[in-house]
Design a protein that fits this description.
Strands 1-2-3-4-5-6-8-7 form an eight-stranded mixed beta sheet, sandwiched between helices. The chain has a single domain, classed as Gcn5-related N-acetyltransferase (GNAT) (Aminopeptidase). The chain starts with 5 loop residues before the first helix and ends in an 11-residue tail after the last helix. Helices cover about 30% and strands about 30% of the residues. The chain is α+β, with helices and mostly antiparallel strands and about 210 residues long. A hairpin with a 3-residue loop joins strand 1 and strand 2. Bound molecules: coenzyme A. The site of coenzyme A has 22 residues, from strand 5, helix 5 and helix 6.
């Protein structure tokens, strides 16, 4: 059988083909990326303020396409294990960021959460809302029992997102992450399924 190329993946899948997507709230929608998202995505992946605490970036156009190719690759395995999703502002239809659920450093039944937003979207509660949508996908959609996040101690906005959703800090991992050539501590935050289901933040997202 011919090997599936990244171009095949990009060209052949539409967001509707993943049964757990899209996920919707009054303000936001979470879906797989499509090629037309490129310039919205590049606007934030190329912004050094946005990528300061991220393992990649600021991105050239080629590097942004590589990120989109990697996101498309997550759609291939069956059953699917990883998600890198477009965060769409419903009022404008624009992609304002990305949110992820990764198996990368996770054990069975567990996923790592990640997110970033374009700078003009910061400070409006949108990251917290998008992360709530990701938690709904992880717990109610995928049946996970634990979601964790790893945050740089000097990234208070990201700590705010996780604490605001009820994540608990479980520890500080010394010189855990190589961030752009420098070993940095990571704060480990986690939330359990039962904690999420009892939280008021678990309301508000669904599938249309
Ligand atoms: C981290 C990031 C996604 C936060 O986005 P945001 O939309 O501004 O966050 P929200 O408006 O949803 O705020 C969530 C909570 O954090 C708090 N918060 C936001 N920015 C903050 C800051 N700079 N300092 C302290 N608290 C902050 C908010 O007050 C809110 O708390 P609340 O629940 O008590 O109201 C955004 O800053 C970003 O994209 N940064 C670059 C990428 C990044 O660092 N990603 C995370 C890597 S671990």
């Amino acid at each position: 059988m011919a090997k599936t190329t990244k171009a095949d993946v990009r060209g052949s899948l539409s967001p509707e083909e993943s049964p757990l997507l899209p996920r919707t709230s009054p303000r936001l929608l979470l879906r797989d990326f499509v090629p037309e998202d490129f310039w919205d995505v590049h606007a934030y992946t190329s912004d050094p303020e946005v990528t300061r605490w991220l393992p990649w970036g600021p991105c050239t156009e080629v590097e942004t396409q590589e990120l989109l190719d990697r996101a498309a690759g997550y759609r291939v395995p069956d059953p699917r294990t990883d998600y890198s999703l477009a965060i769409v502002e419903r009022s404008s239809g624009r992609v304002i960021g990305s949110g992820s659920l990764f198996t990368r450093q996770a054990k069975a039944g567990e996923l790592e959460i990640g997110y970033c937003l374009a700078r003009q979207a910061w400070g409006k509660g949108l990251a917290k809302a998008a992360a709530a949508g990701l938690l709904g996908l992880a717990f109610q959609g995928l049946g996970m029992h634990r979601v964790f996040g790893l945050v740089d101690p000097e990234n208070p906005a990201s700590v705010g997102v996780l604490e605001g959703l009820g994540f608990r800090q479980e520890g500080r991992l010394k010189k855990h992450t190589n961030l752009k050539g420098q070993w940095r501590d990571s704060l480990l935050f986690a939330i359990l399924e039962e904690e999420w289901l009892a939280s008021p933040h678990s309301e508000g997202w669904g599938q249309e």
